[in-house]
Amino acid sequence: MWQRVQTPLYGISAAPSQPPAACPCIGAQGPSRPAGFNAPSPAPADRAPAAPNAPRENIATVNRHLWLLVFCQGMFLTNNVTFIAINGLVGLSLAPLGWMATLPVMGYVVGGALSAPLVARLQARHGRKRCFQLGLVVAMASGASCALAAAQGWFWMLVASTVVAGFYSANASLYRFAGPELVAPGLKEKAISLVLAGGIIGAFAGPNLASATRELAAVKFVASYIALIGVAGLALLALSFIRFPEHVAPRPGAGSGRPLSEIARQPAFIVAVAAGALGFGVMNLLMAATPLAMQQCRHPFDSAALVLEWHVLGMFVPSFFTGHLIKRFGPLPVMAVGALLNFVCVGVALSGVELMQFLVALFVLGVGWNFLYTGGSTLLTTTYRPEEKNKAQGAMDTCVFATMAVTSFASGALVTTQGWQMLNLGSLLPIALVSAALAWLAWSQRRQRAHAA
């Protein structure tokens, strides 16, 4: 007779007579491991130890702490989608020149790029929870500042406020890496995928929040920025109930693992970062330009909000099964499908500018991004040891935000000067680079296996 046991931290039920599920990413590092695939140590200092009777994955259930983190991710995406829906339009109405319209969008990701190294250091010193809470306080302050700038017509203050908001974005982008710390080690892929699935909340809440609040104040979209203060407040409340594993700050002079330069030379690290950064860059290039392109094509704002809603659904609905796919087939095949879907998106976008073509192209783009980003994030976790996590994760997000900053600026400049079709044609180059990187890593893996045999 099976006896079910509930573990207090992970909140998962398992049959104690079963042996722990093996996890390929846990174990000691030895010389027989292929280069670029170093496994982390089994007991990181800031993670609670696994339960004595680890669960079988097919009967595991996530706990309330992870679900609360999923909700925080949903509030984060609500903020992001609302920013995307309105920042370009507010910027267009206030900017001295039309090509500056997406500078407020660019400011948000530039702020994230500048903040990512700082956030990595703060999390190493103070832990996940305190840093996440600080990010949400900054989000509330920047929302108030954006509202004031929009109400007064201060374009450069709006840009500066979105740069400050990037600190929140740099924090919240690490929710996906915090998720695996709340579950048993064998559920890493599923935890990353499930946290990203929280973006479904943003898919519905973001566009509808922008539509419902755009006319509530005397100046259009001021109420939308004010509403984002409440969104951050809800996330702050939910975060207060999450119990992260106890954080142990590194002692002065204690080793922090290999230098980042050594970690970054691993083939898997290179491909994970390239796929995450370029995949995010292409997605941001097309997504940030969509409201402007649809306005140029005389589509109403509600239609643009609908397209963004379906785009964000494409980004996060697959997260309910992306983790299972990665667990079964590995990250590289899943990422390859993501790159293929990016090519499909461009093909649909080039076929015309009717509402349905915008909607289908952006939905497919979202699914492709999900496969690339989830797969890349999972692949990254195989390249560092526990004591190296902050520097490795921070490096990836710095590259992601830097690429997004460039594409945010380029999207406004290209769509207002060259048009929607040239923007899509230009996106083919980074998609091809990602595809080539994935093929290179797959070839490297096969070669290493052949040598090992």
Tell me the number of structural domains: 1
Rg computed from alpha carbons, rounded to a whole number of angstroms:
22 Å
Summarize the helix and strand pattern as letters: EEHHHHHHHHHHHHHHHHH
CATH second-level architecture: Up-down Bundle
* Shape estimate: globular
Strand percentage lies at under 5%
Q: Give the strand tally.
A: 2
Unreliable runs, pLDDT <50, ≥5 residues?
Answer: 1-61
The CATH superfamily appears as MFS general substrate transporter like domains
General description of the model:
- Helix content is 69%, strand content 1%.
- It has 453 residues and is mainly alpha-helical.
- It has one domain (62-249, 257-452): MFS general substrate transporter like domains (Growth Hormone, Chain: A, Up-down Bundle).
- It is globular and about 65 Å long.
- The model is unreliable at 1-61 (pLDDT under 50).
Provide tags for this entry:
single chain; 453 residues; mainly alpha; Growth Hormone, Chain: A; two-stranded antiparallel sheet; 17 helices; disordered N terminus
Task: Please outline what is shown here.
The chain has 453 residues and is mainly alpha-helical. It has helices at residues 64-94, 103-126, 128-152, 155-172, 175-178, 188-197, 199-213, 222-239, 260-263, 267-296, 301-316, 319-329, 331-350, 355-380, 389-417, 420-426, 428-452, and strands at residues 5-6, 13-14.
How does the SSE layout of this entry go?
Elements: E1 5-6, E2 13-14, H1 64-94, H2 103-126, H3 128-152, H4 155-172, H5 175-178, H6 188-197, H7 199-213, H8 222-239, H9 260-263, H10 267-296, H11 301-316, H12 319-329, H13 331-350, H14 355-380, H15 389-417, H16 420-426, H17 428-452
Antiparallel strand pairs: 1-2
